[in-house]
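To whoever is covering the structure queue this week,

Two jobs came back overnight. Logging them here so there's a record in the thread.

Job A:
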Amino acid sequence: MSLSDSFSDAPGSGSDHDEIDSLPSTSTESFISEDDYDAQREWEQSLEQLQLLLSMILVPFAGKYFGRKFAYWSWARYMEWMHNVEIKWTNKTSFKAAGAAEAAATL
């Protein structure tokens, strides 16, 4: 037995190989009633909607918000280091609210 023989597929195992590579699919035969099938379909649709909500709204908003916070923080550190200027935020809550409003403005 050579090294290349150990990596080859056995002939006739094509259907098993396809099933292993993909996620198992649910068939309508595995459900007891039509109501179970409808409930499963609605559950999958709601999971897809949650995924879209996360990927289209929440993640970009959080990225913009924390990106702006990091930009202001790094700008303040640079000004203190390079130009010896002290940066103070007078009202942190209004600064955070303005950052959130700016991040949400273009979404």
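Job B:
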Amino acid sequence: MPHYSHLLPPSWKSQVAAWLHEDTPSFDYGGFVVGEAPREAFLLGKGSKRAVLAGTPFVDEIFHLLDCTVEWHIAESEEFEPIRHVATIRGKARYLLLGERVALNLLARCSGIATASKRIKDLAESYGFRGIIAGTRKTTPGFRLVEKYGMLVGGIDPHRFDLSSMIMLKDNHIWSAGSITAAIARAREVGGFSLLLDVEVRNEDEANEAIAAGADVVMLDNIDGDQLASVARNLRDRWKGEGKKFLLETSGGITEGNLRERAISAEIDILSTSSVHQSVPHIDFSLKIQIPPN
């Protein structure tokens, strides 16, 4: 059965090693105190709300590098109610503690993103939205792989991964090129047929220009409410039967609070929001070494 971990690139394990190196660049003073007696630790999912578990491959690798084993008691993407015993980790005491904070921080962030992603997806669907819910590229430098992974586990589209995986032309590109048409023509010269072209627009006129010039996706940025529905409907009517295929994306300032007015199922294909990964609440986890029986 395919697992999201099968998406991870060859480089991801070296990132895990770098996290451990960052956290213990020289002497392990606390490790000296506890020594290397074999111990068992319980990984507990805490907090006050129902959460989604995400980030298990990274935690597995953290402890694998420290010669510890991880036994998961719930599956990745499964929801749990706090307090839940989600895993048992076994290994030498100092190695358990060497991996503790790195693993907890990663799990807290990744699970927080997965939880927020699932929540906004479920909310949009409850409003009748049947399009694509996506994140954005507003991720933490050096931690994008984990954050995009969390979006996938939460059930949403991670959107473009980087500048090389899709051509997105925003206001600065357009102003620098002189016009939407000029920017699209220049992008097509080098992007070829294999890259989708997503163009940010501010109004209906700009959207029509983008579609005429060959945009694959038209991002209606910061347009909301009745205006969003009207613009989207007009674009569908204007280009019906013209042989132009395009998707409409709504983006800009979308949160759970204003989701209803942006999740217009009949007109909008994609709803992208950074609210599922920027400033998202983390999920609290703790690792407790168990006292061995006498």
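Note for Job B: The longest strand covers residues 84-92.

Please reply-all if you pick these up so we don't duplicate work.
Q.
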